[in-house]
Amino acid sequence: MRKRQKMYKSYGRPLFNFFCSGQWRGGIAVAPLLILLALVLNACSTTTSPEVSASAPASAAVRSITPRIATNSQSATDAHTATSYSIKVYFSRLPQSNDNFNAVFPLNRLSPTGSVGTSAIQQLIAGPTASEGAQGYFSEMKNHLVGPSTCTSSTTKLDFTLRLNMKGSTYERGTATLKLCHQFASSGVGTDARATAEINATLKQFADIKKVVILTKDAHCFGDESGADICLR
Known about the structure:
Layout lengths: L1 H20 L8 H16 L23 E2 L5 E2 L7 E9 L2 H4 L5 E7 L4 H11 L3 H5 L2 E2 L1 H5 E2 L5 E2 L2 E2 L2 E8 L2 E11 L2 E2 L4 H16 L6 E5 L18
Parallel strand pairs: 10-12
Antiparallel strand pairs: 1-2, 3-4, 3-5, 6-11, 7-8, 9-10
Helix pairs in contact: 1-2, 4-7
């Protein structure tokens, strides 16, 4: 900018005065001077555009579950403590769940980490407390998982795996896939239906999960007697 101002003072102003005074009429060649004047004015008026940078689009990423916090009165809020998240675990209950396989009932729990979906299912498998059991609460997930685990994380045997925004092995936003790592020793259609209702309600309390796919340890659709794996279509 200073260089351009210096050029204007050296050439632009004298040329301006020259033309305004009428001295050019004395036979001096006009064309070269006009060209020089145009170059000087162009240099003074040119500005530099700011550099614009573009970043590459972000790849599709698996989003973390946002916990929905519940107080002891079972009302939902969006707050959490520094060390735990308040969540709900949905259990079957006698006698209601015998008459309606989809009837499940929430009990308050705490998740020690932000992995609230995983923690909720772990506590569903752990089942109700003794006092809750005396009130008729029970978990089909606790009662029917048998045999050794087929899943290992480091040196830990897992009861299940949970993948967010996945339908089986295919990306699908809002869908969670829970794969069992043990054999599920079902005693009939009612058992399968109650287990499905418990898992669905427990996971769908979280805002990021709209749909749940449940797979057996052999990666087939849970409770699908057709063998067609309809849940993966």
